[in-house]
Every structure is written in structure tokens, then in C-alpha cells.
């Protein structure tokens, strides 16, 4: 569906390095990365709104590299809706159709039903809630029957209730066969909506793969920390045992190759017990208990190593953990990721 080959963008203060990327027809594809990574520029390049410096863009087998936006059959929805304030919901939805020789009534009525906008058609954007504005923006984007829907953080400005509502609309559109490429900062959104994900960092594509794989097996420390692998530390390993820089020892796993490396472990993969459990467990001091929505982060100290474990409140109550107490931690061997040492931007 989307085939980017050697696509690059050179701007005075930013460079999107040449990248290759393919998105399949009917796929729900996610694009993530820190602020300023180049995500919006990439979407705008695909939509034809951002000039590129090199490479080609093919959509559905057609080379669209030099086509104007209105001939690409692509729609782009932004976080801030970009609705026209002086037009009603109905006029906003119909707006794009003027460039496409008018629309088909049944299609527009279908969208109005799908996105539950019927009772809002005569209202102006300023009188709508965030969720209603985003539903209007989606209807306007879909009115022109795009082959591809690009979404630039469409849920970021919405409160959780509206976010869930728009997520379910997006799932429904995907179920109808639409191809979606969505930018988000939120890895929870990636897990709940996406099939594959690309991680972009400082203009460089770091990893592309199934959501589960990028989440569980990030290719380097930068991707690891971006996907929530909060525990990153260096150790020299010998026979499955790691020696930290302060000399403390940690039993990792017999499968871990010898040598110095950067290690990553997700906070939910740090197991805590009141008593030592097997020889792989090590004693930590509880530094803080931080509520994070439905879970708690337990900040732990083991020598100079700071670790974060994550658990549900019920487990925290079972353990009756308090600040400054001692607790025994261990890592699930299968959850240990090993990255090359010496990466820039990692601890
Ligand atoms: N027209 C432009 N001219 C020069 N630099 C630009 C232009 N547009 C964007 N940039 C710069 O390019 C970089 C990437 O911008 P982009 O908006 O794609 O980031 P992003 O990954 O979408 O970030 P965020 O998540 O914060 O929206 C930024 O440093 C931005 O300042």
C-alpha cells in the first residue's frame, strides 16, 4: 500500500535520514518516537504537504512522489482537528469534496451515522467537545474516500473517555478495510490498536516490526527506553552472572553471552518477594512507591543500581511494602534483553 524507498528530508535544522518503509493494504500501522523525531514530517511527506529531498513514495503501486496532495487519495487528521471555526459540522465534512467533484450522499450519511454526528450537523466547532471535534475531523477526512488515512496523534488532546470512543471508531474503520498509519506518543495505544510499528528517533528509523516484537525485543537501548523498558544498566557477564560497575553481582541467566553489554528489563518483569527466592534474587531497598494509573512503580536501590518494578495495587497490598524496607528482587530470565555496549544516549 505504502512503499517508501530512500525517502529523505533535509531542512535547515533537521534531517530525516533516507528510509525504506512498507505498509500493507488494510494494515493498522503505528509510528512512534520522541518529540522532534520527524514523525509529522514523514506523514506530511506521504500526504504531499512536505517536499522531500530524495527517494520515492508509491501508494497502491502508483508512484505519487511528484503528485499534488489532492491526487494522492490520502487524508491526514491532526491532533488539533484543524476544523474551520466559521463552518458548521456539515459544512466542515463537505469541505474536502469541493476538490473531488462533490460526494456521494449515501457515503456521507454512512459516515455521519458511524461517527454519531447526526445531532451535531448544524453546530460550529467551538461549541463541540474534544471528542465531537475529532469525530468531525475524521468524517471530513473520510468524506473524500481516501485509500489511506494518516493520523497525527489524533487522541492526544482527548480525555480518556473520548479517547476510548475514538479508538473504537478507528478499530471499526480498520475492520472495514481502511489502511491506517497513526503517529502516537503512547505505547499503550500502540499495543491496543497497532499491528506493526516503526520507531523513529532523531530522523533515523530505528526498528520496524510487529508491535509485540518491538515491545519485547527492542533492537537497542534507545528503542528500549522509548517502549518503556525502564531498567537499563551495564554489566560485565561471565557464566550468566553480571558484575555491575560498583562491583555488585547479579545472577542474570545462563543463556546470556559473556562480555560487557547494556541490559534492559521491563518493570513488570522484575519480581519482588519478602524472602530470598532462589539464588538469583538480590536484596533491594524500597526508595519510593509511585502510583501510575492502574499500577504502581516500585523504585528500588541495589548499590548504585536504581531499578523500577511495576505491579498491581493488590500485589502491593499482599507484599505490604513500605518505603525504606528491604525486598528481594529477581528477573525473569526470558525477559532480559541484551544490547551492544557503548550506545549514545543510554545510561
Ligand atoms: N518547516 C520546517 N523547517 C525547519 N524545521 C522543521 C520544519 N518542520 C519541522 N521542522 C523540525 O523538524 C523536526 C521534526 O519535526 P516533526 O514535527 O516531524 O517532529 P515530531 O516527531 O512529529 O515531533 P512531535 O512528537 O513533538 O510532534 C523538529 O526539530 C522540527 O522543529
Automatic annotation (TrEMBL):
This protein's UniProt keywords: ATP-binding, Nucleotide-binding, Transport
Cellular component aspect of the GO annotation: ATP-binding cassette (ABC) transporter complex
Single GO MF descriptor: ATP hydrolysis activity
Keyword Transferase included in the entry's annotation: no
Pfam families recorded: ABC_tran, TOBE_2
Residue ranges occupied by any ABC transporter domain in the UniProt entry: 2-227
Name of protein: ABC transporter ATP-binding protein
Lineage: Bacteria, Thermotogati, Synergistota, Synergistia, Synergistales
Amino acid at each position: 500500500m505504502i512503499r517508501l524507498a530512500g525517502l529523505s528530508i533535509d531542512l535547515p535544522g533537521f534531517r530525516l535520514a533516507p528510509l525504506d518503509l512498507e505498509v500493507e493494504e488494510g494494515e493498522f500501522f503505528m509510528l512512534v518516537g520522541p518529540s522532534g523525531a520527524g514523525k509529522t514530517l514523514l506523514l506530511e511527506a506521504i500526504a504531499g504537504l512536505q517536499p522531500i529531498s530524495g527517494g520515492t513514495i508509491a501508494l497502491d503501486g502508483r508512484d505519487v512522489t511528484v503528485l499534488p496532495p489532492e491526487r494522492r487519495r490520502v487524508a491526514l487528521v491532526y491532533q488539533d482537528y484543524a476544523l474551520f471555526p466559521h463552518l458548521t459540522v456539515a459544512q466542515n465534512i463537505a469541505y474536502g469534496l469541493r476538490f473531488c467533484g462533490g460526494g456521494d450522499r449515501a457515503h456521507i450519511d454512512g459516515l455521519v451515522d458511524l461517527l454519531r454526528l447526526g445531532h451535531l450537523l448544524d453546530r460550529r466547532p467551538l461549541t463541540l467537545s474534544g471528542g465531537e471535534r475529532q469525530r468531525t475531523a475524521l468524517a471530513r477526512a473520510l468524506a473524500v474516500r481516501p485509500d489511506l488515512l494518516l493520523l497525527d496523534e489524533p487522541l492526544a488532546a482527548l480525555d480518556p473517555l473520548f479517547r476510548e470512543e475514538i479508538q473504537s471508531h478507528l478499530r471499526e474503520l480498520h475492520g472495514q478495510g481502511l489502511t491506517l498509519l497513526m503517529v502516537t506518543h503512547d505505547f499503550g495505544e500502540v499495543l491496543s490498536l497497532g499491528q506493526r510499528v516503526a520507531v523513529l528517533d532523531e530522523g533515523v528509523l530505528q526498528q520496524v516490526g510487529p508491535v509485540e516484537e518491538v515491545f519485547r525485543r527492542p533492537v537497542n537501548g534507545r528503542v528500549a527506553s522509548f517502549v518503556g523498558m525502564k531498567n537499563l544498566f551495564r554489566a560485565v557477564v561471565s557464566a550468566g552472572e553480571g558484575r555491575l560497575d560498583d562491583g555488585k553481582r547479579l545472577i542474570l541467566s545462563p543463556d546470556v553471552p559473556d562480555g560487557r553489554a547494556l541490559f534492559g528489563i521491563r518493570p513488570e518483569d522484575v519480581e519482588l518477594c519478602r524472602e530470598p527466592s532462589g539464588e538469583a534474587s538480590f536484596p533491594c531497598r524500597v526508595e519510593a512507591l509511585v502510583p501510575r494509573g492502574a499500577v504502581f512503580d516500585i523504585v528500588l536501590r541495589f548499590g548504585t543500581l536504581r531499578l523500577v518494578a511495576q505491579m498491581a495495587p493488590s500485589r502491593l497490598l499482599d507484599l505490604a511494602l513500605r518505603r525504606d524496607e528491604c525486598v528481594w528482587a529477581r528477573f525473569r530470565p526470558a525477559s532480559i534483553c541484551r544490547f551492544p555496549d557503548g550506545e549514545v544516549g543510554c545510561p
